[in-house]
């Protein structure tokens, strides 16, 4: 599904990624771990085409993402959901409206939106909060709405960049369980995090990045920073 081939990425004189070789298969759950500044976010940005490698290739289903035109890039990104530490919900829209907005942007008709959004909110356990505004929800609930929004266009890949970074242990566990549930339904998940306790609970494939290089790969997490 995703293949990094000897990828190099620099920002001026700073090397963000160097010699990265990585393959992600359909349906995997991968934890991408490392300290802040290790290169995790850069790697995710290369997958969605927000950045391009200075050398090497990033392939998605054998398509070199650097060759995708600006016109076609939005269509490719519709296959990819993205969740951030900074949740960025629309404050004046309800949970329902935040998810619906993502579908509106993709051009879905009102009938489909009204049919799909309740199902997506139910999947993340927030159908009962459909009419609540972000200010009326906890941090964990807001992050689950953000995940619901990322799922609105039925992505085959979900990228989660430090999604529990601002959450307490209880809410972090809820978000983690939701990501595992989404993965069990067939969506490939890449979780970028520095929270070793979460990684060790998942017990899935772990990729460790240090100073822009992949230094370790484990079939299951027993990870310590």
Mean pLDDT: 92
Please, how many domains? Answer: 2
Helix content: 25-40%
CATH homologous superfamily heading of the largest domain: P-loop containing nucleotide triphosphate hydrolases
Number of strands: 10
Largest sheet: 6 strands, mixed
Order of helices and strands: EEEHEEHEHHHEHEHEE
Structural class: alpha/beta
Distance between the termini: 28 Å
CATH level-1 class of the largest domain: Alpha Beta
Radius of gyration from the alpha-carbon trace, in angstroms: 17 Å
Low-confidence stretches: none
Helix segment count? 7
Strand content: 25-35%
Q: What is the CATH architecture annotation of the largest domain?
A: 3-Layer(aba) Sandwich
Strand order of the largest sheet: 6-7-8-3-9-10
Shape: globular
Q: Can you walk me through this structure?
A:
The protein has 225 residues and is of the alpha/beta class. The chain folds into two domains: 1-79 and 156-225, Rossmann fold; 87-154, no CATH class. The chain is built from seven helices and ten strands. It has helices at residues 40-47, 73-77, 95-105, 110-123, 139-151, 169-184, 196-202; strands at residues 2-11, 14-24, 29-33, 55-60, 63-64, 80-84, 157-161, 188-193, 205-210, 213-218. The strands form two sheets. It has a six-stranded mixed sheet, with helices on both faces. Strands 2-1-4-5 form a four-stranded antiparallel sheet, covered by helices on one side. β1 (2-11) and β2 form a beta hairpin. α3 crosses α4 (110-123), α3 runs parallel beside α5 and α5 (139-151) packs parallel to α6 (169-184). The model has no long low-confidence stretch (mean pLDDT 92).
């Amino acid at each position: 599904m995703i293949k990094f081939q000897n990828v190099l990425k620099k920002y001026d004189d700073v090397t963000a990624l160097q010699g990265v070789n990585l393959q992600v298969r359909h349906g995997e759950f991968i934890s991408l771990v490392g300290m802040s500044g290790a290169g995790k976010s850069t790697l995710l940005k290369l997958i969605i085409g927000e950045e391009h490698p200075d050398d090497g290739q990033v392939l998605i289903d054998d398509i070199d993402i650097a060759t995708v035109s600006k016109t076609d890039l939005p269509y490719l990104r519709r296959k990819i959901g993205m969740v951030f530490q900074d949740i960025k919900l629309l404050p004046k829209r309800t949970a329902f409206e935040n998810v619906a907005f993502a579908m509106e942007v993709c051009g879905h008709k009102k009938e489909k939106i009204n049919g799909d959004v309740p199902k997506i909110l139910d999947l993340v356990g927030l159908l009962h909060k459909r009419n609540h505004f972000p200010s009326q929800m906890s941090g964990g609930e807001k992050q689950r709405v953000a995940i619901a929004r990322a799922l609105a266009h039925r992505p085959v890949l979900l990228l989660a960049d430090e999604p529990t970074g601002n959450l307490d242990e209880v809410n972090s566990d809820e978000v983690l369980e939701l990501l595992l549930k989404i993965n069990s339904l067939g969506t490939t998940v890449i979780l970028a995090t520095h929270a070793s306790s979460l990684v060790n609970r998942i017990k899935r494939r772990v990729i460790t990045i240090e100073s822009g290089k992949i230094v370790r790969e484990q079939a299951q997490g027993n990870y310590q920073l």
